[in-house]
Amino acid sequence: MGRRLSIWSAVFVFALIASSISAEEAESKEHVLTLDHSNFDDVVGKHDFIVVEFYAPWCGHCKKLAPEYEKAASILSSHDPPIVLAKIDASDEANRKIGTQHEIQGFPTLKIFRNGGKGVQEYKGPREADGIVDYLKKQSGPASAEIKSTEDANKLITDKNIVIVGVFAKFAGEEFENYTALAEKLRSDYEFGHASDVKYLPRGESSVAGPLIRLFKPFDELVVDVKDFNLDTLEKFVEETTVPTVTIFDKDPNNHPFVAKFFNSPNVKAMLFMNFTNEVAEALKTKYREVAEQYKGKGISFLVGDLEASQGAFQYFGLKESQVPLIIIQANDGQKYLKPNVEPDQVASWIMEYKDGNVPPFKKSEPIPETNDEPVKVVVSESLQDIVFKSGKNVLLEFYAPWCGHCKKLAPILDEVAISYESDPNVVIAKLDATANDIPGDAFEVKGYPTLYFSSASGKLTQYDGDRTKEGIMEFIEKYRDDKTAAQEPIKETSSEEPGKDEL
Ligand SMILES: *[C@@H]1O[C@H](CO)[C@@H](O)[C@H](O)[C@H]1NC(C)=O
Ligand SMILES: *[C@@H]1O[C@H](CO)[C@@H](O)[C@H](O)[C@H]1NC(C)=O
Fold first, then answer.
1. Which helix (H) or strand (E) holds 495?
2. Given this model, what pLDDT does residue 484 score?
3. Given the CA of residue 276, which atom of ligand 2 is nearest to it?
4. Which of 27, 82, 281, 365 is a plausible cystine mate for 382, CB 3.0–4.6 Å?
5. Which residue, judged by its Cα, is nearest atom 13 of ligand 1?
6. 247 neighbors 237 (Cβ within 8 angstroms)
7. Handedness of CA 441, 444, 446, 449 (dihedral sign)
């Protein structure tokens, strides 16, 4: 799940955040503390509150963050009490264990350590100096701020943020303790405040008495009350009520936390992409919203994305601007379903068709090339069946990425192999751009580039992980090639008894 989220975040959110960061010169005196494996536990253990950046020297986003982080550290060093910012090179072999221990999956990752490391939270604040300073000042103070007046409330509760307010006649007792525990636990995600009277609060029923928790949000019903103070119930309540009926994905950074939440959800994901400034936009949004409301709590989450902000998503899914407005559904098994050029009146019926299992899955594919007469044949998603599985030939297939250096090195070697087999009608050497074509996950496991698979004429699939030399590859092909008649044998049994195949 975490891994998937980081891919999504890269596609959607961070591309935007990164572009809004301005680079500034680093100052000469370093305020950021440098940690390593020898002193990490010691230093963290000594602090009530310390922030640690897990970084890698080669990481571009880390380099952009560095001057901002240093500037924030310099400002926060004179805060009372001082707030310490530290960093650790988690890509360094010696520090790896610490990174693993803290489940670092990407760089930079910032974590807040409280009480000598007993409490750990992900840093979810901005990445420029002033934003870092504001966020950390708040994080180092009390989890919940007391609201003593309407002015206090209006300062805390805006029309852009989620705020959770506890209302108590007196700030003591089990309900108050549970509220405080909730605030401590979720403080890096939401704003918290407590008040002795609902009359200070800007929205919601004003004739109710505490104890009660009122959640303010900038979407849907805007305010929701809860009176059950069981900690688990409260957490679930917050989790559920803070997901918008329709998540908006555009260039507004206020919406990005919800986008991250959307992709982190275990639900099926429906996404409507369109040009927000188009005439049909409002009609479509309205219809889409109606459907989203209808499917609430039924395992589908809904997002609407502005074309202008969605290039990453278009590339990822292999979509074209000419298909806009479109709905794409990503199911939990990885299958995708596409409705291009959708009209407002088709939204509900198409989602229903999908639910009923009547929409065929959509595959990202390059077009089948008109000519394919180079020694190494080009395979795309749409021709994979014909060239590899149904051809009755022995096919060596390379999954590559256009930007991959090792693939470029392999290309002339594959060419040579292909030329060597040019007079053999039963052997095909082929390649597939795995960034532009969906790959059936039940047949191939492609974790890096290049990945080589051999599909024998009878349909036995074997991954090649030997030397990337002409000799090595040809030896392998000769060992595993067969002819179509071999398919009469039960495939599963023979391949599991196959000699020379490592279980690893
Ligand atoms: C506070 O939370 C605990 C743990 O969930 C629960 O057992 C207890 O009943 C809660 N107290 C109140 C007053 O709801
Ligand atoms: C969206 O539509 C507007 C108005 O028709 C147009 O000016 C704009 O270029 C479109 N945006 C994109 C990203 O296509």
1. helix 491-496
2. 74
3. 1
4. 365
5. 175
6. no
7. negative
